[in-house]
Amino acid sequence: MLAPDKLKEKFKKVSKENWLFRTFLKGQEPDELDRLVNEMHKELFSKMDCVACSNCCKTIVPVLKNDDILRIANHLELSADEFKKNYLKEMDGKWVIGARPCPFLKKQGCEIYDYRPENCKEYPYTHKNEIVFRLINLVENCEVCPIVFEIFERLKKIYKDEFKEYKRQMVASNIIRPWKS
Q: Alpha-carbon torsion 133, 161, 153, 6, what sign?
């Protein structure tokens, strides 16, 4: 698996292909895609220490639900209003962590790990079904999460021949221009 500090550089090299691959995946059998991604999720997460990576904590701004706010505020011995004032900002009518990297990310990991927001617990959502409806997020998360990047690279190998033919058809139809992978 790719080291977290190499991710951005490697993502730039495959970004264009990943966006096309996303379009290709939308045409695949959704249940099979879910099965493949869910299996890779289990395998890869069993091998990686997410806390050691923490790329998501450095770059993504999670949305907090009211339950998250109350749980974390209680843990920090703050009122919900104090917690919001000190750590959150309102964005499009939703509460989000107000700084990047996350203010709870320390050298030893997340200070509120056992109380962290649901969005943090669920990230990168590769354990859930209906992957086909979250492909835009997955492509974007390839730049953040080594596991998502690895899942995409493995899917490209699984669908190698079909994707190659798909690219050929897109070039032949003048929908895309050829490029080197």
A: negative
Cα distance between residue 151 and residue 146, in whole Å: 9
Q: Which of 124, 155, 128, 157 is nearest to 55 (CA)?
A: 124
Q: Give pTM, 2 decimals.
A: 0.89
124: nearest Cα among 52, 25, 31, 56? 56
CB 131 within 8 A of CB 138: yes
Q: Domain ranges in the chain?
A: 7-52+124-172, 61-114
d(CA 128, CA 34) in angstroms, rounded, equals 8
pLDDT tens string for the chain (181 positions)? 888 888 889 999 999 999 999 999 999 999 999 999 999 999 999 998 888 899 999 999 999 999 999 999 999 999 999 999 999 999 999 999 999 999 999 988 899 999 999 999 999 999 999 999 999 999 999 999 999 999 999 999 999 999 999 988 888 887 777 666 5
139 C-beta neighbours (distance < 10 Å), count? 21
